[in-house]
Amino acid sequence: MKLEGRVALITGAAGGIGAAIAQRFLDRGARLVLVDRDPIRLEQLNAALSARYPGKIRSHSIDLTDDAALEQLARSLGDSPWPIDVLVNNAGILRLGGPLESSLRDWDALYQTNLRAAVHTTELFVPAMLRRKSGAVVNIASAAGKVGVPAMTAYSAMKFALLGYSQSLHASLRSQGIQVHCICPGLVRTSLLHSAELDEVTLQQMDERLQKRGVDPVRVARAVTQALSGDRFMLDVGADAHGVSLAVGLLPWHAHRLIHRLTGRQ
Question: How far is CA 25 from each of CA 20, 111, 174, 191, rounded to the nearest angstrom?
Answer without folding.
Answer: 9, 28, 22, 21
